[in-house]
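Hello Y.,

Per our agreement to keep a running log of every chain we model this quarter, I'm adding this entry. I've kept the format consistent with earlier entries: sequence first, then predicted structure.
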Amino acid sequence: MRYLFPTATSADVRDRTVAVLPVGSFEQHGAFLPLATDTVIAVTIATAVAEAHPVLLLPPVTVSCSHEHAAWPGTVSISASTLYAVVRDIAESLRHSGIRKLLIVNGHGGNYVLGNVVQEASVRGERMALFPTELDWLAARAAAGVETGPDVDMHAGELETSLLLHAHPDLVPADYATHDERADDRNHFLTFGLGAYTESGVVGMPSLATAEKGEAALANLMESAAAALAALDR
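Predicted structure for the entry above:
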């Protein structure tokens, strides 16, 4: 999977009515996956959407709300209010240029504020959607045969590793299967952060990951993306 870095000219996108904004993060993913994993996944999904649909692919937002990972070096965060403002400003700028529909492709589960951005935009009569939803991810897991559910497979586990093995295998080291760690009980996760529950930073079973699962998950997400884009036209 290649990343279609935005190289279009104004003339190329004159007829575009929808923009796609990947939002990732820069945070620890254990000792074996890159800090930019969530951004890579968001860009992978957004690029696949842009390859299949006539949309304007935007550069990614690469730093977001990763405060739960602050226990590990390399993690960088911005506040929820800053992320909110950045996405709002991008949407407003797009509207000034005639693009009034925005699909936000979120690669990081901790970006809760993006849901508020979309909900508030809808009340104002703007057209914005957040993708993938929790249901989209569940459908992708089922279609791919991912063996662990989202409670077990929370971070740097089976699904994320599978997506990278399929789309960017050069980013996954040969020893990825040795980094399993379970931390199923995370009841006070928001209070204490992930460092209270996992020593390595991993919560999941990357040993179960395969490129085939990643390919199937991405294919299923593209079916869901088509429905999300159609919703923007209602």
